[in-house]
Input
Amino acid sequence: MSLLVVDNVVKRFDKNMAVDHISFTLPEKTIFGLLGPNGAGKSTLIRMITNIIYQDSGQITLKGVKASERNMFIGYMPEERGLYKKMKVGEQLMYLGQLKNLSSKQAKERINHWFEKFGIEDWWNKKVEELSKGMQQKIQFISTVLHDPKLIILDEPFSGLDPINANLIKDQIFDLKQQGATILFSTHRMEQVEEICEQIALINKGKIILQGEVNALKQQFKENKFLIEYEGELPELREDIFEVLPSEKPKTLLLSLQAGYRPNDILESLLHQQVEVHAFNEILPSLNELFINQVSASTVVTS
Amino acid sequence: MKKIGLIFLREYLTRVKKKSFIIITLLVPLGFIILMLFPILIQNVSSDSLRIAVVDESEKYVKGFKDSKTLYFKKTKKSLEDIKNTYAEENFDGVLHIPELNINNPKGVSYYSDKLLGMSTKMHIQKELEQEIRKERIAEIGVDEKAYKKASKVNIDIKEMKQDGEKASTGAATGIGFMMGFIMYFVIFIYGSMVMRGVMEEKTNRIVEVILSSVRPFQLMMGKILGIGAVGVTQFFIWIVALFFINILMTVVIGVSVDTTSISAGAASQQDPELVMDIMEGFQEQLSSLPMGLLMFSFVFYFVGGYVVYAALFASLSAAVNEEADAQVLTLPISIPVIISFFILMAILENPNTGLAFWSSIFPLSSPIIMPARIAFGVPIWQVILSMACLVIGGIFTVWLAARIYRVGILMYGKKVSFREIGKWMLKG
Output
């Protein structure tokens, strides 16, 4: 079931097409990565999903919710974080929660729940400006998820976080997904996407240039490369089955499979020899490589 | 509406609970007390008593001089040259020399001292001397002094009446009109810039994007304008109540101190207490002749209306700004109509029934400053209704226009915005 459907959405700023006929769907209970270089149109797209600005044309639908109330079911953490510096943490969260239609009783209960979860029960009366940056991020995260949103949109959620806090937030993201939330994750940090996202859409210059499941995309763009770790003497290699590529580590062999053969053929050619095979891995392209290849390809095409 | 309510409450409570708000709210009445007490204190503290040696060559004048608490005259028989050198040793502060005077052209009175006399003391001495010379002249003409006094005491007060016999009053109207115009001017700048700082804080803090994912820009803007407006109303309410009590306190304090100081040198002694009473009573009467009910109502109405119009303008333009420094330039066009209105007000207080007065009291950017003053002077009721209607319509239009600028500007970061672009935002949906 898809939770969010973005259909043919267009947004122009003067003559500049910020979002150019973008369509994608977000299945329920997935972690979706919205990727793209700076200025690709990610933030504009997110602002339209969260009702901050309106699209010029096209449809955005959140399952079972009127368009005008969509933002009440979305939790949005922008890339540029911001809180009222002089306000107390508790009051601030109460305010932000009530703006998302929580009653003051509900808001208070949920804040206490999250305070317990993060072990910060004594923060209610602290002013935001007294907190460190990492602590402020925790508050920002709580404010994003306080109203139990169906869709959580996180724009670069780990920027400026130390590894401990980044892990804490990451765990919370997985937890929320377990509890039924869907997460839209906008970033240009590929290693995080690889770790967390199940599906991605890659945007460049206002257009989607690639989209799908992470594993499927890797399969689609794989180059049939394999890495073998071994001990002992290598036999004469069957260059008709594979081509040997230069490898950086000693006692490893980087191979490219020739057309018409299967990976098993590689193994077979080595199994009954002196050499002892310790590991055999297919090398899939990293998202980083995909990202760079696709973005530079699309840039060349359009320019 | 619920959202505007929440925003309103936050804007209001965070400001009212601030230490700076409490301090300023208390300091202003305190400032008033000091301002009112200061002249009295100064008079009592600074006027060390002066001892003046008088060399009165004709020996006619000094005997008429009255001493006061702070001023002693002592006739001396020494020659001017002697006393000039020795007055300090004899414990005098200075020497007043009155030569033989030609009463038709009295010249040559001098005062010798290393210290200056001070304005009020100098006036006091001059008055004493003038009085003596006047007596002398009256005697010369052969008129009885009492008869002269009786004849010269005249006091005319023109009572202005309307056709229906109601009393009107230029003096009180000018006073009240100026005061109300000045307060409006003050309100627009103080609370308008509070709105401006609030908008810029949210924008530079980046919290605005989070808030806008929950509410419409219009709701955020309106909640802020109304919340800060309520801060202004609260502050004024506290000040008015405080002033009321200060006033009671002051009449007690001043009443007492007027009694003691009126004999001393200074302004109070120049007027005869009967005349002071006359003026006070006249003022009371004049105040009661003003249309107080309509004035109160219109003041509140224009207070709210004028604030909303200008606050919306401040909010919209400060949303387009990235740095405080740019705000100065962008808000200049808002300040100009306020300042011009204030100048027009000055002209209108002199001459309240011109075409300029009419049009400026209808136009919504100037009417909040000008119309209350004109009401004090008396204005046909249809003009009041027209002006109020224009303010309501103009207010709604300004807020609508401001919201269009605000919602584009508030999310615009980095680049400097020109007035041309702002114009485009207004026109384009």
